Amino acid sequence: xxxxxxxxxxxxxxxxxxxxxxxxxxxxxxxxxxxxxxxxxxxxxxxxxxxxxxxxxxxxxxxxxxxxxxxxxxxxxxxxxxxxxxxxxxxxxxxxxxxxxxxxxxxxxxxxxxxxxxxxxxxxxxxxxxxxxxxxxxxxxxxxxxxxxxxxxxxxxxxxxxxxxxxxxxxxxxxxxxxxxxx
Length: 183
Hints:
- By secondary structure, the chain is of the alpha+beta class.
- The chain has helices at about 1-5, 15-20, 45-65, 115-125; strands at about 30-35, 35-40, 70, 85-90, 105-110, 130-135, 140-150, 155-160, 165, 175.
- The strands form three sheets. Strands 3-4-5-6-7-8 form a six-stranded mixed sheet. Strands 1-2 form a two-stranded antiparallel sheet.
- Strand 1 and strand 2 (about 35-40) form a beta hairpin.
- The mean pLDDT is about 95.
């Protein structure tokens, strides 16, 4: 019986989701659309907030006039997904009419969501050809850098610890020190 019911589930399209959001249907809910399904997002703890705040300050100061820094904003990831990454480094542009569908870099800060961010989120961003995706792993105090998206996965994944300096693919002249945002 459960298998028959699952066959009748129709995924929600991003355009439908955006209309429902505009109507206030999800008011007060902390959700995101992934693969046509509405998923509740994990509650955000103090270490997560502090890390996002540090990343925000660092990226805004570093990329002013070169790229747009978006914090916890929607990203148009194909027809059936609209995640809200903790930080997106976007091409300069006007995103008033539509959410961005391209990014130089996407960052997820992970504590309880670590397996999801390493798994489905990594595949989703690779499918969107995001050239670089970071998982700031608060459990192990590392930054997992995913690069070279191909066929729905990243070909290069490296783990960086405190003291490391990260050079961005889209901005090779910029180095970000892990110590500047990860305690």
